[in-house]
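Worked Example 4.2. Consider the chain below.
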Amino acid sequence: MNIRSVLKMLVRDKWSWFFIPNIVLFSIFIVNLIVSLFITPKEKYFTGGVSYIFVYMLVVGILVVAQTFSYAVSMSVRRTDYFFGTVATGAIVNLSFGVLLLICSIVENWTNGWGGKFHFFHFPYLNDGTLLEQLFIYFILLINLFFLGMMISSFARRFGKKGMAYASISSLLIASIAALLITYYEHWMDIIHWIVDHTAVQLAYWLIIPTLFYVVFSYFFLRRATV
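Applying the procedure from the previous section yields the following structure tokens:
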């Protein structure tokens, strides 16, 4: 079984990859849209319901390895083929959702918030750039979370529950120490100013680095993971 076969094997689960995220996303959208019709705000009305799809991709990244790795290896799939097949699947699916979000954002903007100043897909700052930049922002956010989930699941597969416990505690300690140092040296405002001074697409470019980090480490974890 090669990379192409792995891709076909993974996308057979159309419910997890396509149906469930779309059904839930647009169900949230419709509910919010109906609510907005009764509110009739004087100014633009924004909701964060679209964040669901980004969280979902993190969960999918975790589940795809947990649910398919052992099966694929038992079917004589090389670990390298499984890894690249999963990466390709994640990239294609997340690009598709990026395009979908972009189209919905464009329609929402053209219709002035679906005729009621309601904004579910289109946001200031996030959608200020060109269409290509907006697509890149959606794509890098989605794929960053997907590969973060994939790395977490790959790490768990490689080191087990004890490894996950040690990693969780270490991450919590590092985050706590970092927050303490930033607070002590009063750098929070510097960080906020740095973020404000950059456009959304410029910040998205910085996500390329951790995304590549997740991909590389997922590969090394899966190469030595137990079935």
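The first strand starts at residue 45 and ends at 46. The two ends are 17 Å apart (CA to CA). Compare this with Example 4.1 before moving on.
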